[in-house]
Specification:
With about 260 residues, this protein is of the alpha+beta class. It has 2 domains: about 140 residues, 2-Layer Sandwich (Translation Initiation Factor IF3); about 110 residues, Protein of unknown function (DUF541), domain 2 (Alpha-Beta Plaits). The protein is built from 3 helices and 12 strands. The strands form 2 sheets. Strands 1, 2, 3, 4, 9, 10 and 12 form a 7-stranded mixed sheet that branches. It has a 5-stranded antiparallel sheet with strand order 6-7-5-8-11. It starts with 8 loop residues before the first strand and ends in a 13-residue tail after the last strand.
Length: about 260
C-alpha cells in the first residue's frame, strides 16, 4: 500500500518518544475487533495503528563556534571595560582573518560581584564580567581551523574552552526525508502485522506526524583548551522522526474446507 505524503498533517500533540531506533508498537482495538462491518461487502473490519521511525542525515552547511571570555577587576566598570576591549580585539582579529562581523553575535553578557566563603564568612573578591558569543563560519575544516588559529593567539582564551556545533541550513528538507522513511517504515510494518493477523490493509484512515516527534542532532564538540588542529570524528547532522498511521483492516474470508472423499 502506497501512502500519499502530501496528505500528512503535523500535530502539536505531546508524544513520548524513546531514543532511536524506535520500536514499532502496533495497537489493535481490543474491545471488539469486528465491531464495524464493511458496508460494501459485509466483511468485518478492524483498526490497526502502527508507529514508524525514520532517520535522515545531511552534510553540515556551517559551523558555529561558541567562545567564552571573562574579566576580573576591583571596579564594576573596570571589569566591563576590560572585557569589552578583549572582545573587540578578538572580533577584529577574526574579521582580519575573513570572518564577517555580521556572523558574530552575543549569546550572553553579565557582570556582578564575586564572593567566596572564608571560615563561614563571605569575602568580596571584586567584580567579574563574562561574555559568551558565537562565530558562524563555513563547515569546511580549513575555515574552522582558521578560527582556531586566530583564537590561539590570545592568551586570555587558551584555557577558557570553546565549543563547535555543526548545523544544516535547510533543516526542513532533512526532516521531510526522515518523515518519508518513517511513513514507509510504519506502512511496511502494518502490512506484515495485518497479514500475520489474517487480514488485509484496506486504507489509511489517519496519519499523524507530531512536531514533538522530531529530533535534530547537531554534532557538538567541546575543547577545554584550544588545539592547533581540532579533530571532529563526525560532522553529519541527523534528523529522527516518527509517524503514526491508523489503518482500516479487512478480515480475510475463511475458505470453506472441502469435504473429505471416502476411498472406494
Amino acid at each position: 500500500m502506497k501512502v500519499d505524503l502530501s496528505e500528512i498533517k503535523t500535530s502539536n500533540a505531546n508524544q513520548t518518544m524513546t531514543t532511536m531506533p524506535i520500536a514499532l508498537e502496533p495497537i489493535l482495538q481490543q474491545k471488539d475487533l469486528f465491531e464495524n462491518d464493511n458496508p460494501a461487502t459485509g466483511v468485518p473490519t478492524r483498526a490497526l495503528r502502527v508507529t514508524g521511525s525514520g532517520r535522515a542525515a545531511a552534510r553540515p552547511s556551517y559551523a558555529v563556534i561558541t567562545i567564552s571570555m571573562r574579566e576580573n577587576d576591583d571596579r564594576y566598570m573596570g571589569a566591563i571595560d576590560g572585557l569589552n576591549r578583549r572582545t573587540r580585539a578578538v572580533i577584529n582579529a577574526l574579521e582580519a582573518a575573513g570572518v564577517p562581523l555580521e556572523d558574530t553575535r552575543t549569546r550572553r553578557f553579565r557582570a556582578g560581584p564575586e564572593w567566596t566563603l572564608v571560615e563561614q564568612n563571605e569575602q568580596f573578591l571584586g567584580y567579574r564580567a563574562e561574555h559568551k558569543f558565537e562565530v558562524r563560519t563555513s563547515s569546511k575544516m580549513s575555515a574552522v581551523r582558521n578560527v582556531f588559529r586566530v583564537l590561539r593567539a590570545f592568551d586570555c582564551l587558551r584555557n577558557h574552552g570553546i565549543a563547535v556545533t555543526f548545523r544544516v541550513q535547510d533543516q526542513d528538507r532533512v526532516a521531510k526525508a526522515a518523515l518519508k522513511r518513517a511513513v514507509e517504515n510504519a506502512n511496511l510494518n502494518g502490512l506484515n502485522l495485518a497479514k500475520a493477523a489474517g487480514g488485509t490493509l484496506e486504507k489509511v484512515l489517519t496519519v499523524d506526524a507530531p512536531k514533538s516527534g522530531v529530533f535534530i542532532h547537531n554534532p557538538q564538540y567541546r575543547f577545554d583548551t584550544i588545539p592547533a588542529f581540532p579533530r571532529f570524528p563526525s560532522c553529519q547532522v541527523r534528523v529522527d522522526r516518527c509517524a503514526s498511521l491508523l489503518y482500516a483492516v479487512i478480515a480475510n474470508k475463511e475458505e470453506p474446507e472441502e469435504p473429505a472423499v471416502a476411498a472406494a
